[in-house]
Amino acid sequence: MRAPQPREQKGPRINDAITASEVRLIDENGDNVGVVAIEDAIKRAYDVGVDLVEISPDAKPPVAKILDYGKYKYQEQKKAAEARKKQKIVEVKEIKMRPNIDGHDYQVKLRAMHKFFGEGDKVKVTMRFRGREMAHPDLGFKLLRKVKEDIEEVAKVESDARFEGRQMIMVLAPK
């Protein structure tokens, strides 16, 4: 039977978990006290009734701050949630066409592409070939070139038209 592994603590070390012999101390008011022994820093934090938190462990000596750890953790969670909320996940939307697409159908697909680019998404244009259409890949290239020209003011080509089996694929990204 093996000895249990010590649990790795997530986040900054606090109070007795700080391993350095001395730290650069920032007091509860945010003032820089200077380099002090770890015992003095912990005592000072206990006197105020809060924790000693290691803010920058990589510095020489490490930077520790006297603050309420629960409140600090809460503020960090709020910051992380705010950052996630502002993040935009870019999706890749797919538009499927055939080489002999009708003019109106083409316009409908083009409008859908414009809408996707307006939302900040990428668009993967897939040209499907069936049966005898495989003998005329030039029709597919011609149509994809037309798509490229029609949307050049709102999007740029991320990967040019290429064959993959029975289909031709081109990826476009918003400008």
Describe the fold and architecture.
The protein has 175 residues and is of the alpha/beta class. Helices cover 34% and strands 30% of the residues. It has a 4-stranded mixed beta sheet. The chain has a 4-stranded mixed beta sheet with strand order 5-6-8-7, with helices on one face. The radius of gyration is 30 Å and the shape is rod-shaped. The model has no long low-confidence stretch (mean pLDDT 87).
In summary, what is this structure?
The protein is of the alpha/beta class and 175 residues long. It contains four helices and eight strands; from the N terminus they run E-E-H-E-E-H-E-H-E-H-E-E.
Which sequence of strands runs across the widest sheet? Answer: 2-1-4-3
Shape: rod-shaped
Span between termini: 60 Å
The total count of strands amounts to: 8
Outline the biggest β-sheet.
4 strands, mixed
Structural class: alpha/beta
Series of H and E elements: EEHEEHEHEHEE
Q: Calculate the mean pLDDT score and round it.
A: 87
Rg, nearest Å = 30 Å
SS strand fraction: 25-35%
Number of helices: 4
Percent of residues in helices comes to 25-40%
Uncertain runs = none
